[in-house]
Write a structure and sequence with these properties.
single chain; 0% strand
Length: 179
């Protein structure tokens, strides 16, 4: 189910979705959680159905090492962001700064996997981070920062997953013209 990264994109999308929808109260929150989980499940099932079996294989050793290094740096930066923002009393900045780190990590991954299309989620996540920082800088409430960053990041990751699946799905058959 994690073919071509679709599973990771779908599940991390749920995480961002949960963050973003934490701004809601009442019945909207549980409904949004169900919607996000169903969307992620649908993406993973579509990947299983439409992506070739070869899309889920192991990477060559050097590619795997580079991938692991990039992810290690990403997680170290995320931890540093959380610690610095926590200590400085600005936890509201954690979501946009983490979105920035995650977006930036897609740029070297695009090179490692020879997938220039990974620049798209990079740009979208960086824009989500910038939008969240703009909300914060203009005095917007913490809930709005979380909503903007979380929902934009989730939609970016889910759109990338859908794009991956759609690129591998069989083309619809053309109608046969009748004489």
């Amino acid at each position: 189910m994690f073919k071509s990264g679709v599973g990771f994109l779908a599940l991390f999308g749920v995480g961002w979705w949960l963050l973003g929808t934490s701004a809601f109260d009442g019945w909207v929150r549980p409904v949004s959680i169900v919607v996000g989980c169903l969307l992620a499940l649908g993406l993973m099932l579509a990947a299983k159905r439409f992506l070739p079996a070869s899309a889920g294989g192991l990477f060559p050793a050097e590619q795997r090492r580079r991938f692991n290094r990039i992810n290690a740096v990403q997680w170290l930066l995320i931890i540093a962001v959380a610690v610095v923002c926590g200590v400085s009393g600005t936890p509201v900045l954690i979501p946009p700064l983490v979105a920035l780190v995650v977006g930036l990590h897609f740029l070297p991954l695009a090179v490692v996997f020879e997938q220039p299309r990974l620049r798209v989620p990079a740009a979208l996540l960086i824009l989500a981070a910038a939008a969240g920082l703009a909300v914060w800088a203009t005095g917007g409430p913490d809930e709005t920062v979380r909503l903007v960053v979380g929902v934009a990041a989730a939609l970016s990751l889910w759109a990338t997953a859908a794009w991956t699946v759609a690129g591998a799905a069989p083309a619809p058959r053309a109608a046969t013209p009748t004489p």
